Every structure is written in C-alpha cells, then in structure tokens.
Amino acid sequence: MTDILTTLGSNISKFRKSCQIDLDNLANLAGVSLKELELIESGNLTDLKIIAVKLISEALDVSIEDLFLGNEPYSDVQSLVRLERLNEENKMLVNKFIDHCLEEQALETH
Fold first, then answer.
1. Phi-psi category of 108—alpha, beta or left, where left has phi over 0 and alpha has psi -120 to 50?
2. 5 near 43, Cβ under 8 Å?
3. What would the pLDDT profile of 43-55 be if each residue is shown by its tens digit?
4. pTM for the whole thing?
C-alpha cells in the first residue's frame, strides 16, 4: 500500500508543478488542508480518503486514474493556468488573438 501512496503523492506533485500551482493554492482549490496535501504528496498520509483524491483530481483537472498512473496532464489545462497568470491587458490581447484565429478558421471552413 505504501508504494501506491508514494506513487500517488509523486504524481500529484508532478501534475501540480506542471500547472505551476504551489501547495497552498492547490490545497485551497481542492478544499483540503495544506498539511493533508503535504502528507499526501510525501506519501505519508496513512488514512487517505478517496474524496481527497477526487477533490485534488478535480482541482488539477485530471482523472483519478491519471493521478494513480501518472499519465501526462492535458495541455489545455496548462494553457489555462498560464493564461490565468497574465495581467488583464495581456489577457485581452490573447483573447483578441484567439477570436481572430477562430474567425479565420470559420472563413476557411465555409
């Protein structure tokens, strides 16, 4: 059982870091305590509840299966996280660019 918990914790840490989310932010997003998340990531939480894994998987936007198997997170999630880190002016520029690309794509398909 310890190997499973260690693997799970390592995978959660990998996904969290790939999304550039720190422990505190993930704990808040998932609705778990920081201490609990630290114990989960270290593989040292012996009374792990599946609801905590479910909440963490939802916060990272990956499946529970991915957390246990270590499958790569979706690139869309990484893009959204990166977009969220932009200031408002740059978010507007990115959104205008996306709108422009979608309009051109629509024209190409008609």
1. alpha
2. yes
3. 998 888 999 999 9
4. 0.64
